[in-house]
Design brief:
alpha/beta, homodimer, 3 domains, six-stranded mixed beta sheet, binds flavin-adenine dinucleotide, globular, 457 residues, 13 helices
Chain lengths: 457, 457
């Protein structure tokens, strides 16, 4: 019923992009009874092969788990996952420090290979009788009012045009559907490239198959001049993301960049001074470093997310963010649940798409800011004792009053509290803590004064 | 010397756009000895004819005057100008209120027809022997590394390609040079369309040629539900800009929009309630209203402003702003002076273009924010007595200590203090005023307490 158009036909949906959001959406909409065609520029993820510049593995947290559960997938997935129970901080000359993520056993993240997750989702989607995947087809023209999408087969000149009641752009940060949908219209759009980029490195397992460093954690090598983060894999290897500025800054001659680290010697000496044990963990560090490309990180903000009742965007296509909160896929999955729900409630209509945007955009806007801030947090603050104290106070208060006091990180990663609500609540807690500190100070002063008066009087 | 390339040739510059910035730049660079070709999509402004959606007249203030003086133009221009000595505020049922712009006779703005100013600049530029204008040619392809620009003649299929040492995009807010220069590169870019747009109306002069309302002022009709601003013309007419939301907002059913004001009756009744004397001043208001198109307002922020040593942007092409501070052209002219200066100092080089961007962008970024804030100021605050009091305090303090205390509006409009410096200074003054008020409060409390003690004691 919900999958029919106003005139009673079965609704036809064309999804562009069979990435994480596109393939989850295919499951959801197929299950609702829509006829779903998914067009993906690349090959079938089940054929293997990693795509460059999209990170090899990802951290999945409460929101993502909730979405996978909704399509009956999470429970069988344990073999593909490595639990991450907290952060392990590596600092030159210091022992490893472990910071647990939460206070309860279920408050952990899980690391998974992007490709494996993508394959599981495509498999699941194909179980829906009305879902069909078309790999090797690129969405390249759009009649946004008429609901016609033209696809081309790269390299062959082949083209085809399909008609659909709803066209969904799930085609990632550089979405062509977004560009075609917005062309010539007075839309708001913002892209911010981070002046830092990243290269991937692998910490292999030991010859006996064991892990070289505690495996059930996210590893962080913070430093004033760079940042390395590593996610574990099920084969006991870890994939590192090395973050550095793209270019030299004449104002900071001591800050190396991908531009300036061009010799093996320079790479070796930089990693040895900044990232302590990393050169031991990656013996062929310089080889790997030069073998991998430098990738860009981008934040995309835009509005509107839909065109009338015809075209709509999900995931990175409408809100790509920096990866520093590990929430890109998690929030893309939330989009899918909400869009599915709006289509169920209102059918394929402008109301459905507008309601979807209204329910999601305020939250993904906040998330974009949080992800930007967390870059500073990961790089600078995890080393800072004052900040650590503050984080511990947060956790202690949460232990005392788990319902009343929730650290921001917990709300973002271990609950489904909408991002903007989580931020508001954290800001309220911050104010309380400041007042508390002020009250404590004043209280101490009063006591001191009374004591002094008593002595004098 | 400065106009030669490193190998000693005379530098060739191609300017795309013979608008206000492009034609001023042609004067400056022609005078420096560059061979300058200017390509303009439209016809020669000296042939007359107004372009839609670009406002018929503009307010020129200190920065613009300074630039025109630099090319020997300002002094002969009085016949084209109407001085605006302050704002005249129109409110329903209230007498006209006059707010002077400054404390000194030279602290005024001047209204000028955009087309007339453009014609004067093109005329002046053609006096430079090495400057040539090519009207009816659109910049449409760019080899950004090779310095080759392809032009097409709209409607004819004619094309030509020119080579230049430097290609300058002076092609306005929707700059094609910017898009071609940035294509595929990791650039920062942001466009924000205001959800309010505008339509133009004319207040004609009386049959005897006199003005219907005081002519030497900027007129403002503030209202909670709309905003009208009018600039005077030398023929005693005024051109009004009527600002309203584009679309209806379900949350504010009492707020009309361009979408909803679709009948003569609705227009007449809305203007009569909100804008007091305007219907009398424009007897054919509804006819004019429906005859003119609705235009969009956009803010553009981007970086970088240049590509290596080959391509660079000026004016609206790199920093279009909302018109609410009357500084778009004024700041575009400042760009031209700075770019000319950097080219003189460093020749056509990456250093010259990077220095230009570094000297300008922090200031035009601040200006974009100020222009956004001034929308609220014009619409809501000019009616607010508390705000008026604050503005008067500002002006009074400035009269007392003209060097020490300068209202922000004065620094922006009547000086050439860089915008970001002006904002910093205004923020410092704001803090001083707050402390002053706090000190006064504490002082009063102390005096009161002393008095009370004396009575008691
Ligand atoms: C380094 C890094 C680390 C990250 N870590 C995490 C993490 O720990 N946790 C987390 O939640 N998120 C993380 N993310 C974010 C996460 O990867 C994205 O948010 C997520 O992939 C978005 O899913 P998507 O389906 O919207 O886009 P994508 O996964 O990018 O999928 C888009 C798909 O569309 C296809 N496509 C593109 N254009 C076309 C076209 N014209 N026609 C047909 N197909 C097309 C692409 O080939 C691709 O398959 C990370 C990102 C990066 C870069
Ligand atoms: C309603 C309104 C009121 C305003 N009021 C004021 C004010 O009071 N004071 C003030 O200082 N500013 C004001 N402005 C701003 C001011 O108009 C702009 O800042 C100024 O015009 C910018 O000059 P420019 O030369 O950069 O761009 P434009 O003046 O827009 O000139 C760009 C030129 O490039 C041409 N062009 C475009 N594309 C191509 C191409 N591909 N090939 C060749 N040519 C091309 C266009 O035809 C145009 O002639 C106002 C703006 C508006 C919209």
């Amino acid at each position: 019923m919900s999958a029919t158009t106003p005139d009673g036909r079965l609704g036809r949906v064309a999804v562009v992009g069979a990435g994480l959001a596109g393939s989850l959406l295919a499951v959801l909409l197929g299950r609702r009874g829509f006829a779903v065609d998914v067009f993906e520029r690349r090959g079938d993820p089940r054929a293997g092969g990693e795509a460059e510049g999209r990170s090899i593995n990802l951290g999945i947290s409460a929101r993502g788990i909730r979405a996978l559960r909704a399509v009956g997938l999470w429970d069988g997935m344990a073999p593909s996952l490595v639990p991450m129970r907290g952060r392990v901080i590596h600092q030159p000359g210091a022992p490893l420090r472990f910071q647990p993520y939460g206070t309860r056993p279920e408050e952990i993240l899980h690391s998974i290979r992007r490709n494996e997750l993508n394959a599981v989702l495509v498999d699941r989607a194909e179980k829906e009788p009305a879902v069909r995947f078309h790999f090797g087809w690129r969405g390249s023209e759009l009649d946004r009012d008429g609901g016609r999408l033209t696809l081309t087969k790269p390299g062959t000149g082949e083209r085809r045009t399909v008609e659909a009641d709803l066209i969904i752009g799930a085609d990632g940060a550089f979405s062509e559907v977004r560009q075609l949908m917005h062309r010539g219209l007075p839309v708001n759009y913002r892209q911010d490239f981070l002046d830092w980029g990243y290269r991937e490195l692998t910490i292999r397992s030991n010859p006996d198959g064991s892990a070289r460093t505690p495996i059930e954690a996210l590893h962080v090598w913070p430093s004033r001049r760079g940042l390395v983060v590593a996610h574990p894999n099920t084969d006991n290897s870890l994939t590192c993301t090395v973050l550095l500025p793209h270019h030299d800054d004449p104002q900071r001659p001591d800050q190396p960049s991908f531009d300036s680290l061009t010799t093996e010697a320079a790479v070796a000496s930089f990693f040895a001074t900044e990232f302590g044990d990393l050169p031991e963990l990656v013996p062929d560090l310089a080889d790997q470093y030069f073998a991998h490309p430098v990738s860009q990180l981008v934040t995309i903000r835009t509005a509107p997310w839909h065109h009338r009742d015809r075209v709509v965007l999900v995931g990175d296509a409408c809100h790509a963010i920096y990866p520093f909160y590990g929430q890109g896929m998690n929030s893309a999955f939330e989009d899918c649940l909400v869009l599915d729900d709006c289509l169920a409630r209102y059918g394929v209509s402008e109301t459905a798409l507008a309601t979807y945007q209204q329910s999601r955009k305020p939250h993904t806007d906040v998330l974009a800011d949080l992800a930007t801030d967390n870059f500073i947090e990961l790089r600078d603050r995890v080393r800072n004792p004052l900040h650590m104290l503050r984080a511990q106070a947060d956790l202690a208060l949460h232990r005392l009053a788990p319902q009343l006091w929730q650290p921001l990180y917990r709300m973002v990663s271990h609950t489904a509290i909408p991002y903007a609500d989580a931020l508001r609540r954290a800001q309220r807690q911050d104010r309380l803590l400041t007042w508390g500190a002020a009250a404590a100070t004043v209280g101490t002063a009063l006591v001191a004064r009374a004591a002094w008066r008593r002595r004098r009087g």
